[in-house]
Amino acid sequence: MSMLWPLDEPLVELRTSVEAEPAADAERAEAAERAEAAKAVESVRAAAPVRRPAGARNLGLTARGAVIVMLVTTLLAGGADLVISGHRGHLFGLGFVLSAVLAAYGVRRRELWAAAIAAPFVYCAAIGLISLVDNGSGGGFATREALYLGNAFVTGTPAMWAGTLLAGAVAVQRRRRGR
Q1: Which residues does 114 contact at the CB level (< 8 Å), separation at least 6?
Q2: Is 98 among the domain residues?
Q3: Can you give the residue range of the structural domain that contains 37?
C-alpha cells in the first residue's frame, strides 16, 4: 500500500478544473458577446421608426381639419334648417350629431382626442354663428342674442350631448381597435 500525500487528490481535481476553465471562459465570453449583440439589435429596432406603406401615411383629418368639417357641416345643416323652417331646429341638431360622428371616423388616430373634445366647442361656435343670421325674436341685438343663445343651449342640449358622446364612443372604439 502506498502512502498518498493527502493533497494529491485535490491537486488532480484542481488541475482538471484549471484546464477546463479556459474553455468555459471562452464559452461565457461568446455568450456575453451574443447577449450584447442581441441588446444592440433590440435597441436599434426600438429606435428605428416604424415603416408604413407609402399610402398609409398621414391618412385622415388633422384635429384642425376635423373641427372645420364639423363646423362647416353643422353650419350648412343649420342654414338649410333656416331656409326650410325659418329658424334653427332639428335639422341643425341632426347635422351636428352626424358631423361629429363623421369627424371622429375621419380624424387621424393620433388625434382622436380632438373628435370628442372639440364637439361641444364646435356646437357652441355654430350656435353663436347661426344666432347672427336667425332673427327669430324682436328687441335689441344684445337682448335678441342672449335670448337666442339661452334658448339654443336649453333646447339643443340633447343634440350637443348626443354628438359629443357618439364622437367620444367612436374615438374610444377606434383607439381600442387600433384604426
Answers
A1: 63, 66, 67, 107
A2: yes
A3: 16-47
